[in-house]
């Protein structure tokens, strides 16, 4: 087995979720991610936990969305409900054999299905916020994901493992250092009220007073590298242009422009897959509100890969999530979607806080 994979598994179990003896751990991923599923399972057994693996079959999801009745799309298994209440920890492993497997599905049916899962998502967000559920999501490098990123498999493996610092040395030491550095920034950001983001095609204002900025350093996403907050819901005003394609649920939406008034998206457009964008924003009442505003701080991720786990962390960018707030940040917006979209700030971008420049050309100035 690739030593980097084993190092990743150990980091996920011992650092990211801090798994303990006797805890119930769910590991989920597609069959193509079996090497990492096995490595995580092995490490969990060594801890004395009770791991089990759930293998996702993407073709089944496509079949249900294309052929299922409304009742079938809305149905949530009692097994799934029980599981969401009982597990102590979750390791979600991303990586697929086909990144476009939902491209032929009606966007409205995807939105309908997503809405039906809203209560389940709300429950999971609540458990994560109150620390009764530890979770982390990570990437297993697959050929399909490498192709989507425009890399060979070997290049993509190097990209994935370097971003998480599991390629060499002590990854835990690195992420603890990241956490310490970001804690200094968060101490400052937690005192601000008015945030103003400017870049090409972007002039956006919001208020964040009383909301909590969260330090992301490898505990819930791996790799990581961001700080985020949930803005006061009705204060988001202005417009934003997302520099990179917005990838979500197997679709790629390009050249996204969104205008906000009183915290709601009132006008949206896209150069590609605009119908999907509009369908997702129509999922439920909360889908047109902002659940998260964040700044990427991982400068080891230097290129766009069409994978939000990495792309939202790119140093020199900010990202916004439409839909559900992260409860630990104090947000109050509820939605069945949480769609992160990225705005590049490296060339002329600027963020001011209470009238003072705190970020310019992709770097903090404080």
Rg to the nearest angstrom?
20 Å
In helices, the fraction of residues equals 25-40%
Largest sheet: 8 strands, antiparallel
Q: Judging from the principal axes of the Cα atoms, what is the shape? A: globular
Structural category: alpha+beta
Widest beta sheet: strand line-up: 14-13-10-6-5-18-19-20
Unreliable runs: none
Q: What's the number of domains?
A: 2
On the 0 to 100 scale, the average pLDDT is 96
- Give the DSSP E fraction (strand runs of 2 or more residues): 25-35%
Note the gap between the termini: 43 Å
Number of helices: 12
Q: How many strand units?
A: 20
What does it look like?
The structure is a single chain. By secondary structure, the chain is of the alpha+beta class. An 8-stranded antiparallel β-sheet has the order 14-13-10-6-5-18-19-20, with helices on one face. The protein has 2 domains: 3-171, Thermophilic metalloprotease-like; 188-364, no CATH class. A hairpin with a 2-residue loop joins strand 18 (350-353) and strand 19. It has helices at residues 3-16, 34-47, 58-67, 70-74, 78-86, 107-116, 118-129, 143-149, 153-163, 171-189, 274-281, 308-311; strands at residues 24-30, 50-56, 89-94, 134-139, 194-199, 202-207, 214-216, 221-222, 226-229, 237-242, 246-248, 251-253, 256-261, 264-269, 290-296, 317-323, 338-344, 350-353, 356-360, 363-364. Helix 1 (3-16) packs across helix 2 (34-47), helix 6 runs parallel beside helix 11 and helix 8 packs across helix 9 (153-163). The radius of gyration is 20 Å and the shape is globular.
Can you describe this structure in just a few lines?
This protein is an alpha+beta fold and 366 residues long. 34% of the residues lie in helices and 28% in strands. The model has no long low-confidence stretch (mean pLDDT 96).
């Amino acid at each position: 087995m690739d030593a980097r994979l084993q190092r990743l598994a150990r980091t996920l179990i011992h650092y990211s979720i801090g798994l303990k003896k006797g805890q119930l751990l769910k590991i989920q991923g597609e069959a193509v991610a079996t090497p990492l599923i096995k490595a995580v399972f092995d490490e969990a057994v060594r801890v004395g936990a009770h791991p089990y693996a759930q293998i996702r079959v993407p073709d089944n999801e496509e079949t249900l969305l294309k052929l299922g009745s409304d009742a079938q799309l809305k149905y949530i298994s009692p097994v799934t409900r029980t599981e969401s209440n009982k597990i102590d920890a979750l390791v979600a492993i991303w990586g697929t054999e086909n990144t476009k497997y939902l491209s032929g599905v009606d966007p409205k049916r995807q939105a309908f299905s997503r809405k039906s899962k809203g209560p389940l998502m709300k429950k999971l967000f609540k458990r994560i916020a109150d620390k009764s559920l530890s979770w982390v999501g990570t990437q297993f490098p697959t050929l399909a994901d490498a192709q989507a990123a425009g890399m060979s498999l070997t290049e993509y493996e190097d990209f994935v493992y370097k971003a998480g610092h599991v390629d060499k040395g002590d990854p835990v030491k690195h992420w603890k250092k990241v956490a310490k550095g970001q804690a200094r920034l968060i101490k400052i950001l937690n005192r601000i009220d008015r945030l103003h983001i400017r870049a090409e095609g972007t002039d956006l204002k919001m208020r964040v007073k009383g909301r909590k900025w969260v330090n992301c350093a490898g505990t819930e996403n791996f790799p990581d590298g961001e700080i985020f907050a949930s803005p006061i819901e009705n204060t988001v005003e202005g417009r934003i242009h997302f520099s990179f394609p917005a990838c979500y649920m197997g679709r790629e939406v390009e050249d996204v422009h969104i205008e906000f008034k009183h915290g709601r998206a009132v006008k949206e457009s896209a150069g590609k897959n605009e119908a999907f964008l509009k369908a997702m924003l129509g999922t439920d009442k909360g889908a047109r509100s902002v659940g998260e505003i964040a700044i990427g701080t991982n400068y080891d991720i230097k290129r766009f890969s069409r994978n939000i786990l990495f792309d939202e962390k790119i140093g020199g960018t900010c990202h916004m999530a439409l839909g559900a707030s992260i409860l630990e940040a104090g947000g109050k917006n509820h939605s069945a979607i949480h769609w992160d979209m990225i705005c590049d700030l490296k060339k002329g971008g600027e963020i001011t806080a209470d009238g003072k420049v705190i970020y310019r050309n992709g770097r903090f100035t404080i």
